[in-house]
Amino acid sequence: MLRVPQRRTESVRASILIVEYRTRDYLAECLSALERSEVPRHEFEVIVVDNASPTPAAKVVRRFERVRLVQSRRNLGFAGGNLLGLERARGEAVLLLNPDAVPAPRWLPEMLRLLRDPTVGVVGCKILHPGTRVLQHAGGVLFPNGRSEHLGRGQDDVGQFDREQDVSYVCGAGLGIRRDVIDRVGFLSPAYHPAYYEETELCLRVRRAGYRVVYNPHAVLEHHESVASGGSRTSAFLERYHEGRMRFVYRNFSPAELLRQFLPSELAFLARVSGAERRICAKSYARALLSAWRVRAGTPARGDVAGDTEAPPGA
Asked: Is residue 112 classed exposed, middle or buried when 0-12, 13-18 and 19+ CB atoms within 10 A define those classes?
């Protein structure tokens, strides 16, 4: 079980954790959108973690007096940055939000509405490309080889994904989970440093614990996709993606599942991708086996926090 930071005693309804790395130019729009939330501002807190970003977030955050800024001395990755935020979170619900995302005013109340259901462990949202009705995400599906895919990706949103539904996983760009669920199943694993598949494993653990993972189409945000990673089809992205995928497979599949499910699915997948991607996959098999249980790089340690500027009392 992952170590879960203890919650501070004075709680609020929700804590929104935003990990900034090379996304400073989008952060102000994200924070401004949260100020327009239909949830009263005193009922939720916003914690921005500057993850040793080459685009420091301090100047932007100072414009929002009710936002807490935590500055890390090193890049802890997506999981580790969120763990720094979780250590300070007071919310009964914890929301992960990308800094390059713009939530609609009803995003937060809709996320919290579903989290009131005790059978629900994780809630995801409808994600659109900015300024369009083109879908990025309407829930996620997992294939037997661990490959992940966003439902509706690239489709025009004409209401075909406007029903709440249980899904295999949801995207971490806008994800909600109750604190009592975190206390039971753990949080994002630092083993996926720097990024990819942390939320997928979290959703799997939540489902294995008997909770539902639910896509909520009424919680909507726009997302400037792949700002920090540099693009979703670059070689660098594919190397990180497939290594993350294989870490997920090694950590969560039994030997029987590897033989009966993963192997035939993986062979069929390799047969239809490019030679360059096959070579990336081949390298990922060994690399992931060596790194799938390493957590040091993504685990916050004493001395990592260079600054912690709390919001004013009563904010």
From this structure: buried
Residue range 12-229+304-309, CATH number: 3.90.550.10
219, 125 contact by CB (below 8 A): yes
What residues are paired with 121 via a beta bridge? none
pTM of structure: 0.94
Token readout for 151 is: 């439902």
Placement of tokens 């990592």 in the chain: 304
Contacts of 257 (CB under 8 A, 6+ apart): none
pLDDT tens per residue across all 315 residues of the chain: 455 555 555 789 999 999 999 999 999 999 999 999 999 999 999 999 999 999 999 999 999 999 999 999 999 999 999 999 999 999 999 999 999 999 999 999 999 999 999 999 999 999 999 999 999 999 999 999 999 999 999 999 999 999 999 999 999 999 999 999 999 999 999 999 999 999 999 999 999 999 999 999 999 999 998 665 555 568 999 999 999 999 999 999 999 999 999 999 999 999 999 999 999 999 999 999 999 999 999 999 999 999 999 876 555
Distance between CA atoms of residues 224 and 3, nearest Å: 32
Domain ranges of the chain: 12-229+304-309, 235-291
